[in-house]
Amino acid sequence: MISRIQPAIVTGALLLGLTTAVSLAQPAAAVAPTLQGAGACAKIDMVYRPLSAFPDTARGRGDFGTQWIHIQNAVRCLVNAERTSRNLPPLKQYIGLRRAPALSAATSKHVEAAVSLRWWGKVEPGKNCYPITGNPGMCDPHTNPQTGSTPLSRAQAEGYGRGCASFSVAENTYVGWGHGYVTPRAAVTWWMNSAPHRANILNPAFTELYTEAALGSADPAAGSVTPAVTYVQMFGRCG
Fold first, then answer.
1. pLDDT tens digits for 75-125?
2. What is the structure's pLDDT at 142?
3. Model confidence over 136-179: pLDDT tens digits?
4. How far apart are CA 158 and CA 202, in angstroms?
5. Is the entire prediction scored with pTM above 0.90?
6. What is the rounded CA–CA span in Å between residue 69 and residue 46?
7. pLDDT at 33 over 70
8. For the residues of the chain, what is the DSSP string, one character each?
9. Cα–Cα distances in Å, from 195 out to 6, 78, 87, 213?
10. Mean pLDDT of the 166-193 span
11. Angle 212-216-220 (CA atoms, 0-180°, nearest 5)?
12. CB atoms within 10 A of CB 61
């Protein structure tokens, strides 16, 4: 069964100076090299499964609920392996600290909205989305068509940047469907094979990374194909 991977844009926003940068990423033609952390990171081939796939027990429900933690950790491990192999500092995920809830909440809310509204993919009659600048045939996965929110506005709405002399955020998105296209390995491989997404991953200025995965496709082109998983990751720097 063929699966399609939605190309996405990368949006970076810098509060200091109130500037924004947007670039379009097209699918890379060449096959990406083996990920640096492929042999060292756990659960990189994990497939997000529905609740029905688990026993109807406390343990089963717990295992279903913790899938996103394993996927999040796998993505961060793969990303940091790419960074450290290039002598870049690893990205952190803060838990219970001042900045922790902001980017994590912004990432989680965006992936949930994406799966619920399903506006990613091609611009089609009756479909509510903002076309990508420079590619009017494709919907912008980073701008919520219902609220108009962007990576910067979502981060600020959750309080990111408060108390910072300056801060910056960036967002990568990915959606895949069909076995082999929904795993952390598939998402990071695609990002690393796309120049703008790779630039976010390897940006030495960023210090934080939050990744959220949701069961289901943000692109209606997936139809009823399963499994389908949508990823959103946000990078941050608070100076």
1. 999 999 999 999 999 999 887 555 457 999 999 999 999 999 999 999 999
2. 96
3. 999 999 999 999 999 999 999 999 998 899 999 999 999 999 98
4. 25
5. no
6. 11
7. no
8. --------EEEEEETTTTEEEEEE-PPPSSPPPPPTTTTTSTTTT-----GGGS-SSHHHHHHHHTHHHHHHHHHHHHHHHHHHTTTPPPPB--SSSTTHHHHHHHHHHHHHHHHHH---SB--TT---PEETTEEEEE-TTS-TTT---HHHHHHHTTTTTT-SSEEEEEEEEEEESTTSSSHHHHHHHHHTSHHHHHHHT-TT--EEEEEEEES-SSGGGTT-SSEEEEEEEEEEE-
9. 15, 17, 19, 22
10. 93
11. 120
12. 13
* Residue 123 identity (one-letter amino acid): V
Torsion from C-alpha of 115, 117, 119, 121, nearest 10 degrees: 30
Query: What single letter denotes the amino acid at residue 160?
Result: Y
Tokens of residue 155, six digits: 């981060």
Dig out the tokens for 99 from the structure: 């900045």
CA 4 – CA 222 distance, rounded (Å): 8
